[in-house]
Amino acid sequence: MAKRKIILRKEQKQFIPDLDRTVTISKELFYYLANLEQDAQTPLGVIPKKELKKKAGSTVKSSHGKEFTLIDTNFIDDLKHIKRLPQTMPLKDIGLIVATTGVNAESVIVDAGAGSGAVACYLAHLCKKVTTYDINDKHLAVTKENVEFLGLKNITVKKGSIYEKIPEKNADLVMLDVPEPEQAIETAAKALAVGGYVVAYTLHATQLQNFVNALLKDKRFLLVKSCELMERLWKVEGQIVRPKIMPLGHSGFLTFARKIC
Question: Which of 23, 24, 104, 163 pairs as cysteine with 183 (C-beta 3.0–4.6 A)?
Answer without folding.
Answer: 163
